[in-house]
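Cross-posted from the bioinformatics board.
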Amino acid sequence: MGEAPVTRAPQVKTTELAAETPAIVEITDLSLFYGATKALKNISVTISEKIVTAFIGPSGCGKSTLLRCLNRMNDLIDNVRIEGKCHIAGQDIYGHDIDTIELRKRVGMVFQRSNPFPKSIHENIAYALRLHGTNSKSEMDEIVERSLRQAALWDEVKDRLHTSGLGLSGGQQQRLCIARAIAIQPEILLMDEPASALDPIATAKIEELILELKKDYTIVIVTHNMQQAARVSDYTAFFYMGQLVEFDRTLKIFTNPSQRQTEDYVTGRFG
Amino acid sequence: MSKVNKPFNSKSVDRWSVFFTGLSGACTYLIIAILFLIVGNIVWNGAPHFSLRFLTTGVDAGMFNVSQSGVFPMVVGTAARVFLMTIFVIPVGVITALYMTEYSKRNSVIIRLIRGAVNNLAGVPSIVFGLFGLGFFINFLGQNMDALMNPASAQAVWGKPSLLWASMTLAVMTLPVVIVATEESLKSIPPGLREASLALGATKLQTVVKIVLPQALPGILTGAILAISRAAGEVAPILFTGAAFSVQGLATGLTDQFMDLAYHVFILSTQSPNIEQTRPLLYATVMALLLLTFVVNIAAVIVRSRIRRRMRSFR
């Protein structure tokens, strides 16, 4: 926890290993419309299990929108229309018989702005558990502790579990949100710029946590911060103006991209 | 542009500023003065006659008997109609506001229509509500209920003025206040909280009940306070729908007519055989009405601040 992960470079070893994990998310020719505006243009991308995939690109390129397609959070916005297919674990999540409740239980999400409930730390996690039928107190306490440990927050909050989650610092709040998301053991964890509102030390902790969580979860992270993508991800997708420009191993995207646009972006020539 | 700087010590008095400061201050003090004048007048003239006996006796000794009549049945009647109104108006108002902010499409045609209706409802004079209550609740609902439930009897049970219909008429009148207050507090809840709940696999209903509503509670109570304050002193809506000049005993059932403080003020000031002589009675009754409204308000404000404090400890 004390080390500075700023120096962490993308690890070639994990990247190679990643190629061997099976696909879990398969997006095929997916387009999304806000009214008449086509915000995502015919995107096809396959995300593998138990690795970290980063979505990068300039503001408004559609990376967050695509992320929110994966747990159907876009359903909440009026006038959104989606074409194409998105399969998760073999099921078309936009099929007519899909239960979004079950989907969101299996595809968790952490938001850009930490959003703990105005309840106690314990209750923040217990809320998620109760939604899915955990009622026994001992089981609840056990899962709360395990989730907080996994989110590297336990040691900091174990003595004040029954105080408000909003009394925590920004970084701690975000880790509480991560703990809450992983408490119900999703298969996939979506992270929408999880560290963009945090200071460098809190950011480093979140990044460290992502590398730790990768062992158990498939992580898709949207980030503005290219160094962050390089540090934490195995695969990187670069989006521009609603299109997927390039998708490859992170190392390749940052050292030897195939597309000129990607190279311009990662070297800081635009965006 | 060249600019000549004046020395700092060249301060001059801006007369318009001074004038406006004075004017705005005077207006503010005027409001306070008017309030003190009204309340002071009532307390000054009402207090000598205001006593425990006055509050706890009825009108058995004659309504205009200055030394022996009291306002107990009126206090009970007013408290009962305000209480019942609150029970009717809060659920309907809150659920309407929930529909408008949580369920419907934002700014759809239907929502703009509802919002327009709510605003218009707020602008309807209270006597019109009274007539509406008479026409709809008593003559239509009540009489049909009588015809359905008790066709043989000529005796009206529901189809006559009563505590129930008066409270419902007041509830219709105060609906806009509750809707607007609840809607405002729902709008101020960060959308992130709803997203967080839904992203955890909560249903819309779970999100609304467990996350949204608890946050909106102080706002809902504000709506209740405003509704109670407005309704407690109203006479027009209950004139045809439940308030009686005089009834024996207390109103105990929903279908009973009742005596009412605000209506009693009207009676004392217009029907008294000797206005000068019964004036102390009138003042004391007005004081009782003010006090009742005040007590209910204070109670609601205390409850709200308790809830706020509890929420703040979780903030």
